[in-house]
Every structure is written in C-alpha cells, then in structure tokens.
Amino acid sequence: MTKWRVALVMLAAGLFAFPASSWADMGKAPVGAKGYILGFEGGYLFQDGPEVTGHGIVLSPGGSTHDVKVSPEDGYFVGGMVGYDNGTPYLFGFHRVELFLLYGEADDSERDRAPPLSDIVLKTVDGAILGSGGGLTGRTTVERKSWEFGFRLEDDDTINSTTTVTWVLSPFIRNFDEDTDTLVTTATCCGGCCEFRRGADVDSWLYGVYVAAEPETWLTSNFALVARLGAGIYGYDADGKFRSSSTAVAPDLFAAHVSDGDSGVGFRGLLGAGLKFKISSTAQLEGFAEADYFSDVPTAHLTSNDPSGGLVSHVQSDDLWELRSGLRLTLGLGSSPN
Fold it and tell me: How far apart are CA 287 and CA 282, in angstroms?
C-alpha cells in the first residue's frame, strides 16, 4: 500500500465519530467473487441551505419592510443499489461496480396574518411594482427535491484480519429542483378576494466525480465500525423561471416573467460513519449518519419587497449541506466474502 493511501486511511479512521454520502453500503460488500449485491436505504434528511425571499411585512404605515425568508430543512430520503463483484480487477484495478439511485425531498413554509395597522406586500419578479396594498395574509412555500444516480467502482485492501479499506471512484449526476410559491390575499375588492402571487422554479444539473476511502473494522464477529471520507468536483448548469400575477384588476399590471440561468464548477465533500450488524454471512444491516457538502448549488434569489429595492429576480449559487441518518440493508446474492 502506498504512503498516500496509509495517510488517507489514518485520517478516515479518525472520523468515525463524525456524521457522508449515501446510496451504497460503506466498506466491504457482503458477497464473494462473481456475486451480486442489492441495497435498500431510507431515513431522515436535514438540509442547511440558502434562504429564499417570500412575502414582505410592513409593521406600520410608511414603516420599513421586513422580508420573510424560507429555507427547507426537514425531509426524508430513500435509495437503492445493485452491484456485481468480479472477484479480480477488471477496470482500473477495481473489482466491484455498484449502480445507485438516491431521492431526497425537503420543504418548509411561512404563514403570516397582518397585525393591526400593518400590511403584507409583494413585489413583481422584475422588481417594478409593489402590489397588495391592504394585504391581510401571506404564505410562502419552498420545496426542494433531488435525484442522484451514477456508479461506484470499488477495490478492497486488507489491512489485517479485522480491518479493510475500500477505495471508491464514483462518477455521478444529480438534479436539484427548487420550487417557490408565495400567495398574498387582500381585502375584498370588486366583489371578491384579491390575490397576488409570485413564484420561482430553478432546475439544476450537477455532473461530477468523487473519490473516497471507506475503512471498516470488525469489533466482534457480528458488529463493525465503518466510515467514509471523500472529495470530488462537479460542473453545474441551471435554468430559472420567475413569475408574478394578480387577480386585482384587468389587465393584470402585476404580471411579469423573468428567465435566468447559472453555471460553474463546485466542490463536493463527503463524511460518514456507521455501525454494521451481520445478519448472516451475506446480509448486513447498517445504521449510519452522513454529511454531504456542495459548495455551489443554484437557488432562486427573488427580489426584495422593500419599496426602495428594485433588483430583478435571478439565479445565484450558494453552498448546501445535506445531513442524512437512517438504516441500510445490503444483501449479497452469491458466495460469502473472503
């Protein structure tokens, strides 16, 4: 084993106590040569990402405007994997390949009712018109969904009778879809309730590759500690659609549409730790906690509702943390591992 591999193993082993990437078992797969692997997982998703501007609140006539910010945090994830262990190296020294698919979803909303002498306002997506004078209620909802698929090439290095390190090379494609919707209702007008609506949809694609080291140490014959330490790079491309409309008057002076895009390069970091329980020689249940960091993820930057601000809504990248904790079942279809 080369010196750089030894150094990486030592660093990864020191990260057992920290929460990394999902979609496949960490460490060595429970199958021997010429065997297949199936994996299923799911659990709790927490996102720490950028806030999105919703409706505005004016606390007193002629007073300053407070923008309501919304950022999805709590959600869930599910994933699956299928793989094959060739037993001997067949591509770049790797002997196992795993195809994975991961889906995650998180959403959040803010609802406000105007206090006495206050107002809830909303500005068009192009920043030209401030509408909803006399706004009574405001609601902003932000939903983020993500799909990721790709494959992992793996090679297992034996350190001693209880410890191995699995080396991973993984190209991936990830899609982020962020949808924002704001609705402000005003006092009755023209025989009905007036509504002002603003929304955004940002669709982003990430294309990249990461490398990782996954040390595994069996504490007993049935329990093992596993970890993951990885880093990668990706390119991203995003399209954003912004819209606003109202039912106040005809023609609708609040109607506006803006299109924008963004592209660039980002960094991905992965950390993870888990505890494996051996159900049988070819079946394992893993409880895990993982953190996935993206340095640049496109998001909607909607214009402020402050009367003095007139920026056009646009797409802008920001960093994002995904924290996942859950259970993973891995099944080997074939001979037992060596």
Answer: 17
Which amino acid, residue 302? L
Structure tokens at 69: 């910010």
Rg (CA), the chain: 25
Give the integer Cα–Cα distance in Å for 12 and 216: 10
For the stretch 213-243, pLDDT in tens is 999 999 999 999 999 999 999 999 999 999 9
Percent helix, strand, coil in the chain, to 5, is 5, 70, 30
Give CA 191 to chain center in angstroms.
44
Which residues lie below 8 Å from residue 297, measured CB to CB, with a gap of 6+? 49, 50, 176, 204, 206, 236, 266, 317, 318, 319, 320
pTM, two decimals, is: 0.87
pLDDT, tens digit (0-9, with 9 covering 90-100), for 243-260: 999 887 778 888 999 999
As a whole number of angstroms, the distance between CA 201 and CA 199 comes to 7
- Pairwise CA distance, residues 331 & 281, whole Å: 9
- CA dihedral over 47, 48, 54, 59, signed as positive or negative: positive
Comparing CA positions, the residue from 274, 275, 142, 237 lying closest to residue 198 is: 142
Structure tokens at 124: 């068009």
Please name every residue paired with 111 in a beta bridge, in sequence order, or none if there are none: 139
Q: Which residues contact 4 (CB under 8 A, 6 or more apart)?
A: none
Q: What is the dihedral of CA 187, 189, 193, 198, to 10 degrees?
A: -80
Strands (E) across 159-255 are located at 163-189, 192-218, 223-246
The one-letter amino acid at 27: G
Place of tokens 């750089």: 4
Name residue, tokens 């803006």.
258
**Residue 97, Cβ neighbours under 10 Å: how many?**
17
Give Cβ neighbours of residue 86 (< 8 Å, ≥ 6 apart). 33, 34, 95, 96, 97
Query: Which tokens sit at 338?
Result: 């060596």
